[in-house]
Each structure stands twice: as structure tokens, then as C-alpha cells.
């Protein structure tokens, strides 16, 4: 089933704009506060934390753009899925933090699992042409 016209194409466009746009926003934040994010990453044991922050920001921005524009959407959704699969347990290890931080980390962990799941869903949808998209790299 292609999503090239009709209501399905419009709903998919709205979903792509929301999901991809918010992922882009998250990625941009990696560039606006790299030192603060690198400090957090370092506290979580990430090797080369500043490089990790910049690299993850690139993945988020390019992945989000890929979904919004329909450019290599399978690659974009796959890259986002891998990012959330790796980053979620590494950065939001609610089981290993003090009690006063547990709920906040669990909230972030749960949000990232939802984003991972959404990335997997989009990965499946990305194998079909999309309406209102460039459809490059299908």
C-alpha cells in the first residue's frame, strides 16, 4: 500500500512533520548546549562525551530531516532507531541512579522507548512512496 494520495498521505505528512520536527529540535539542542550535554554524557560514562553529543546531534537532525522531507527515509528511520536503542539504556539508566533522580530518568527512558518504537514503525512505512515527500532513496 502506497501513501501517495488521500487522507493517508495527509495523516502521514502530519506525523512526519511532528515526529521528524521534534527529533530535529532535539538534535539542534545538542549544538546549542554541547558543554552541558557533554557533562551529562561524561557523568554517564560516555567516552569522548563532546564528540558523542555532536555526533548524536547530527544523527538526530539528519534523521529528522530525512523523515520530514522523505529523503532516504529507510536510512533516516533506521539511524534514529539505532540511536534510541543505544542512547536510551546508556543515558537514562533509572535503575542505577539515586532515588531522587529515578523518576526523572524513568520518564526520559520511557519517552525514548516510545521514540524507538515510532522509529521502527516509520522504518516499515518508509519502504513505500509517501505523498508530499521528495521520495529520494526508496
Automatic annotation (TrEMBL):
Entry's transmembrane regions: 6-28, 48-68, 113-132
Gene Ontology, cellular component aspect: membrane
Listed InterPro entries: DoxX
Keyword tRNA processing: no
Major localisation: membrane
Membrane topology: Multi-pass membrane protein
Keywords on record: Membrane, Transmembrane, Transmembrane helix
Official protein name in the record: DoxX family protein
Subcellular location: Membrane
Source superkingdom: Archaea
Amino acid at each position: 500500500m502506497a501513501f501517495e494520495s488521500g487522507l493517508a498521505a495527509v495523516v502521514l505528512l502530519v506525523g512526519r512533520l511532528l515526529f521528524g520536527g521534534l527529533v530535529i529540535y532535539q538534535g539542534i539542542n545538542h549544538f546549542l548546549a554541547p558543554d552541558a550535554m557533554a557533562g551529562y554524557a561524561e557523568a554517564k560514562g560516555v567516552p569522548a562525551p563532546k564528540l558523542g553529543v555532536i555526533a548524536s546531534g547530527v544523527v538526530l537532525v539528519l534523521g529528522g530531516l530525512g523523515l520530514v522531507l522523505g529523503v532516504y527515509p529507510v536510512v533516516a528511520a533506521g539511524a534514529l532507531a539505532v540511536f534510541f536503542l543505544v542512547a536510551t539504556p546508556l543515558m537514562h539508566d533509572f535503575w542505577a541512579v539515586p532515588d531522587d533522580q529515578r523518576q526523572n530518568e524513568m520518564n526520559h527512558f520511557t519517552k525514548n522507548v516510545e521514540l524507538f518504537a515510532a522509529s521502527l514503525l516509520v522504518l516499515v512505512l518508509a519502504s513505500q512512496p509517501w505523498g508530499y515527500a521528495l521520495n529520494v532513496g526508496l
